[in-house]
Amino acid sequence: MPSFDIVSEVNEVEVRNAVDQTNKEVGTRFDFKGSDARVEQAEKVLTMFADTEFQLDQVKDILKTKLAKRGVDIRCLDEGSVEKVSGNKVKQ
Description:
This protein is an alpha+beta fold. It has 2 helices and 4 strands, in the order H-E-E-H-E-E. The chain is 37% helix and 16% strand.
């Protein structure tokens, strides 16, 4: 009896495009004016930076929306814990 394996991989090009679109939208939105909110990608790790946890949640929502529009399943994301960086800035 034949058997087959199912492999699920994330399209890294689409993820990179979604990250770029997220950073562009965060840069143009009025509520992020003057903040250091951004998303960085290193290999298969995405790191979000913001001034407050509320802004971090906003960046996360924008990123998830952009990923979904590009056909990337957002269930592939493993959300890490929120860490305080320097001063009142946070990252996840």
